[in-house]
Amino acid sequence: MTGQTRRLADRHLTEQLGMVRHGGEVERARQPHGPQRFATLVVGLDAERFALREAVRIARTVACALRLRVVRVPGVHMKVAEERPAQRLVIGAGRARFRALERGRRRDPSAEGQHRDESHPTRRPAPARRRPGLGLSPSRRLPHPPLLGMLRRMMPRLPAPADRLRALLEAPGLRVMPCCFDALSARLIEHAGFELTFMSGFAVSAARLALPDTGLISYGEMVERGREICSSVTIPVIGDGDTGYGNAVNVKRTVRGYAQAGFACVMIEDQLAPKRCGHTRGKAVVTRGEALARMRAAVDARDEARAGGHDLLVLARTDARANEGLDEAIARGRAFVDIGADLVFVEAPRNEAELARVAREIPAPTMANLVEDGETPLLPPDRLAALGFKIAAYPLTLLHASVYAMQEALAGLRDGRPLERRLSFAALRELLGFDAYDAEARRYAHGDE
């Protein structure tokens, strides 16, 4: 098999079987048996994401369909499939194991013994006869499309972002949620070990436009930034959908767009457009009837998106506390739950007693919004958990910290002082993926191996 044919096989299997995308990895191996045989296909399955039973089922089906052979790997309890001596499929239980296999440790005596013709120990068996349309032949024939569809359906899928968010909400305790404003800040949140994040409208408006959160940023700008954020992390991301950017029909478009962008959840609020930051003066809310109609449109769009394969949750927000009082805010929150909202967020309670009422009286998971120097007291996470909240959002913490750090660095440059508190260049390269990029590029280097 030539290097070009091998790379074609790798790319095809990687993309069509979906193993890289859904937690496994497909790697090519050296071909010791000449150009008329398949290269060994090494499949590393993440043990935390792929149940053993699923791995065995995939191995047997792929081996049967592509006329490969399953080889027992130490640490993976697996029966040997129908013998096809010329080819084999190796399934390992984790990246470390399959990397070791790729380096050559897969050639253990037991595995090699299974490749030999027992009646002629020193002679390599003839290649198995292949059916037309299956696997890669010397003419570079790709697997049959119906077979690929069957294999793709069989591959275990990672939970969707919405499912992962549901699991977090169903688990006991409170989740601390730093909020992001671009792909880099979202990646930093994930690398720090947090389980979810929120794309803050205030922070995105500041970082992208250097403008206040007063309804100046558009739907298109927000959903574009959200797509960048969702593609840069694996943790669930909640998106700030503001008022839905118009009437009920606009709300539905916003929800659909956020679902397609990859968000786990979209937040829709009841402010009067143009909306404002919830901890600033001058905001107003629409009537309760209009707020309920807006939320009904969001829930309908959620259900339609889910039916179309783009699942997400709806976080219903009310700012009625500022002008209408806490009783009205709680009444709206309860009505949002009756309509079908998945989570509720009452903006800017004034004290701990009000926070306690919100968590106690709204029959759905609730979120507390903790803005430094804002209207709501900054209670510690343990106290918020005791009150019954499921998420503690910190919408401006990273924006505050990054702006302050940049101002300090600029002051130092202006005064001729070297920058001391900074990330090393090596750490920055690693964060941005330079090493991973170079390793990936080496996989597709030209020439035979």
Task: Describe the protein.
Helix content is 45%, strand content 11%. With 449 residues, it is an alpha/beta fold.
Any descriptors?
4-stranded mixed β-sheet; 449 residues; 8-stranded parallel β-sheet
How is this fold's topology laid out?
Layout: H1 3-17, E1 24-28, E2 41-45, H2 52-66, E3 70-71, E4 89-92, H3 95-105, H4 109-113, H5 145-154, H6 161-170, E5 175-180, H7 183-191, E6 197-199, H8 201-209, H9 219-232, E7 237-240, H10 248-261, E8 265-269, H11 288-307, E9 313-318, H12 321-324, H13 326-339, E10 343-346, H14 352-361, E11 367-369, H15 381-387, E12 391-394, H16 397-414, H17 425-432, H18 434-443
Parallel strand pairs: 2-4, 3-4, 5-6, 5-12, 6-7, 7-8, 8-9, 9-10, 11-12
Antiparallel strand pairs: 1-2
Helix pairs in contact: 7-9, 9-10, 10-11, 11-13
Strand order of the largest sheet: 10-9-8-7-6-5-12-11
Total beta strand runs:
12
Using only C-alpha atoms, the radius of gyration works out to 27 Å
Q: Return the average pLDDT rounded to an integer.
A: 76
Instruction: Report the β-strand fraction as a percent range.
Output: 5-15%
Q: Sheet bearing the most strands, described?
A: 8 strands, parallel
**Uncertain parts:** 1-52, 69-144
Please state the overall shape, judged from the principal axes of the Cα atoms. globular
How helical, in percent, are the residues?
40-55%
> If helices are DSSP runs of H or I spanning 4 or more residues, what is the number of helices?
18
What is the H/E string?
HEEHEEHHHHEHEHHEHEHEHHEHEHEHHH
